[in-house]
Amino acid sequence: MIENNILGVVLAGGKSQRFGSDKASVKFGDKSLIEHTISKIENKFKEILIISNSDKNYFKKKNIFLTKDVIDGYLGPLVGVLSAMDWIEKNNKSYKWIATFPCDTPLFDENVIEKIKSYTNKTNKKLCFLKNNNKRHNIFGLWSLELKDILLEDIENGFRKVEEWANKIGCEIIEINSENDYNFLNINTKEDLEEAKKNFK
């Protein structure tokens, strides 16, 4: 089954500098931002890994795990991805892919999860990202474990931005064509949070 080949990963390792506090735990409706993400993906994967540098244990469920970045310094999502790959290796898991989701985009459509997962059988590339209305969403991604060594090398050589690294590696585009741009509203500031609330049902 595809589910046994993919680890679901929530990237929550940032410093939340623009927000001013740990945004993963900020309430949005009756759930925190990270709870919105988990509630959408937890039944879609056999196991879920949260990448977080906080000591807070967000979830106490047998199939949800927590690990910190393998490189200190809040160096961005690429290190989060590397940390997930490292966790798979250290725990002798058999996953061949990881599917990444942000902790701060609570309005995304659950239908994209199955679409992302399906690309393990559709692509000959090792990296896939969602694209909607001409904008690529680099945290909603599918990453082959075969990228681990080159990812580590490139991080050590100074790569930080997912966009730049993906352009170097080459990636498959998963077209969504949703008319609702707010589905991908990324909450970086308190103003973003207020904007998201306007579209929350």
Question: How does this structure look, described?
Answer:
With 201 residues, this protein is α/β, with parallel strands linked by helices. The protein has one domain (2-198): Spore Coat Polysaccharide Biosynthesis Protein SpsA, Chain A (Alpha-Beta Complex), CATH 3.90.550. It is 28% helix and 22% strand. It contains 6 helices and 9 strands, in the order E-E-E-H-E-E-H-E-H-E-E-H-H-E-H. The chain has helices at residues 33-41, 77-90, 111-118, 148-156, 162-169, 190-198, and strands spanning 6-11, 27-28, 31-32, 48-51, 64-67, 97-102, 127-132, 135-144, 172-175. The strands form 2 sheets. It has a 7-stranded mixed sheet with strand order 5-4-1-6-8-7-9, with helices on both faces. It has a two-stranded antiparallel sheet with strand order 2-3. Helix 2 (77-90) packs across helix 4. The longest helix has 14 residues, at 77-90. The relative contact order is 0.18.
Structural descriptors:
201 residues, alpha/beta
Task: Output the CATH topology.
Answer: Spore Coat Polysaccharide Biosynthesis Protein SpsA, Chain A
Terminal residue distance: 33 Å
Biggest β-sheet: strands ordered side by side in the sheet:
5-4-1-6-8-7-9
The helix-strand sequence is EEEHEEHEHEEHHEH
Total strands: the figure is: 9
* Average residue pLDDT: 88
Q: How many structural domains?
A: 1
| Largest β-sheet summary | 7 strands, mixed
Structural class: alpha/beta
Low-confidence stretches: none
Radius of gyration: 16 Å
Coarse morphology: globular
**CATH architecture grouping:** Alpha-Beta Complex
Q: Please name the fourth-level CATH homologous superfamily.
A: Spore Coat Polysaccharide Biosynthesis Protein SpsA, Chain A
Report the top-level CATH class.
Alpha Beta
